[in-house]
User: Fold this.
Amino acid sequence: MAKAKTTAFFCKECGYESAKWMGQCPACKEWNTFVEEPIVKKESSPSGKIRLTERRKPVALSEISIEEKDRVSTGYQELDRVLGGGVVGGSLVLVGGDPGIGKSTLLLQVCRNLAANGQKVLYISGEESLKQIKLRANRIGAVTGQLLFLCETSLETIQETIRETKPDVVIIDSIQTMFREEIASAPGSVSQVRESTNLLMQIAKGEGITIFIVGHVTKEGVVAGPRVLEHMVDTVLYFEGDRHASYRILRGVKNRFGSTNEIGVFEMREQGLVEVENPSEFMLEGRPEDASGAIVACAMEGTRPILLEVQALVAQTNLGIPRRTAAGTDYNRVNLLMAVLERRCHYEMGRYDAYVNIAGGMKMNEPALDLAIVMALVSSLKDRPVSPKTIVFGEVGLSGEVRAVSMAEQRVNEAIKLGFDTCILPQICLEKIKKNDKIRLIGVRSVREAIGIL
Ligand SMILES: Nc1ncnc2c1ncn2[C@@H]1O[C@H](COP(=O)(O)OP(=O)(O)OP(=O)(O)O)[C@@H](O)[C@H]1O
Ligand SMILES: [Mg+2]
Assistant:
């Protein structure tokens, strides 16, 4: 008699189950994503036996009341904005990010603020001891109010504790360390992560508790575990930043209660994370003036303009094939822009190495940076500095034309706010902007025109 199968293969990306290993997942078409794991017994699945709440009746939409207090401020404007104006009661928020970026620090600080605001908070850590948390808490300053800590990895125990303590907010640090006893596979595996999140979702929705989940990210920078994880939760936030720079960016990639365009900027200091209210000022700090190859550009992060410095260094090449690098921006885009310079403006870029860098470690792929990159390259090539009070934005097309970008007015206003006196922008955008005597606006139609201004 054939033995009953106890394991199956699961897709790490979408959770698709298959009896045998496959190279490509038929559901999400990703390659090499199948891992072997014990099968989850059907009777233990959450839709089966476990029932957290009473059976409820359907209600009419008009009978549901929303109170303003359903949204609670986290005490950080930057985070509130990313969440769409504060945390919604009973929501499930997933916070992902690279190791050591400051996920635990951010959430501990949020806990402190919420507890000080009269909320009961339960912080559950599966990866750190109480002593380690205490050390971190000492770093971020005094804690008041009801803030409870628990070191636990079994979700069944956690569920009981939540029932007993009845907190308003729960932090799970991190989902990859949690496990459900009825599932045989190891913590962090596809089925564990999926089923654990499922249970947490039921707790959040059933009892109206806000739950923040910390998720580890994979090499590719997405939350480890199946993609379905992101579908289950209400909000997915990514905490990112440069290892060597002190600022951190919180980005919403999914939000059921607000826009996903917003970002929050924080700075990691000795005493924890501090909000950065004016990122442009922060990004332009310590900028060399009168250096060739450096230009300030304006990029948009959602509805927020951010000024940053684009640097280029062009040097005669010693090799047959010139070297090109792009840090903080798209490498292929830089190559494309150099080809435009070569063909449309007749610079022999093939004879030069070129290095392009977005200062401060920020990553930006917005096409509005094109014109600044082109001008920085030419400025470096000709060793002709651009006035430090000039800002540039515009998209460059393949025929060397400068195309319009969105939200030009906001970009110009940000430049005025930070004391810039000249702005080079696409001619089409110029026509739409109101005249302003605080800043000189120069509209350009082509790359050649823009270089002429240099
Ligand atoms: N005394 C300090 N001064 C400044 N920064 C510090 C100090 N102590 C820790 N940090 C910063 O805090 C970071 C660790 O933060 P945290 O533990 O919150 O990260 P995490 O994202 O939770 O990491 P993990 O993925 O390991 O859980 C360190 O990488 C470091 O940048
Ligand atoms: Mg941590």
The pocket of magnesium ion (ligand 2) is lined by residues 103-104, 173 (CB under 6 Å). The two ends are 83 Å apart (CA to CA). The first strand starts at residue 7 and ends at 11.
